[in-house]
Specification:
The protein is α+β, with helices and mostly antiparallel strands. The chain has 1 helix and 11 strands, in the order H-E-E-E-E-E-E-E-E-E-E-E. The protein starts with a helix and ends with a strand.
Length: about 150
């Protein structure tokens, strides 16, 4: 009898935890018709790695699709790397520097760049101004170092 209550209790606990995860993921991933408005100036940034800070706008970059405001400190360099998923960047302030075998691009306020998943590149912030930009991806974020 005790085993039955323990089993029922564990089943209920798993069901509740699953419901919470589903509810949280629904809150974090916007529906097609959801309106989203956010201000980079009023966003709360958290350092995610030395010289790089982010403020989530929607979604969760560790789990899937997302949008976030990102800042690179002046002179920030992220080395040669790739990302699994495409990343779209729109410059807000300063300059996001992008380099690949074809050369360098400065993504400044109002400029857009789509970095295809698997594309080997270097990215960083302008030496004097750093960079502030909005980034978005249809999949989770990763940075895969390349030698």
């Amino acid at each position: 009898m005790k085993k039955i209550f323990v089993t029922l209790g564990m089943t209920a606990l798993v069901a509740v935890a699953g419901s919470i995860v589903v509810a949280q993921s629904q809150e974090e991933s916007p529906e097609k018709d959801d309106l989203i408005f956010s201000s980079a100036e009023k966003a709360t940034f958290e350092e995610v790695s030395p010289g790089v800070s982010k403020a989530a706008v929607w979604g969760n970059e560790e789990q899937g699709a997302y949008g976030a405001f990102t800042k690179f400190k002046p002179g920030q360099g992220n080395g040669m790397h790739t990302h699994t998923n495409d990343i779209c960047v729109v410059g807000i302030k300063g300059a996001h520097i992008y380099r690949d075998e074809a050369g360098e691009k400065r993504v400044t306020a109002g400029n857009f760049i789509r970095i295809p998943g698997g594309k080997k590149h270097w990215s960083g912030g302008d030496k004097k101004t750093g960079a502030s930009f909005y980034e978005e991806s249809s999949g989770k974020f990763d940075l895969v170092p390349v030698k």
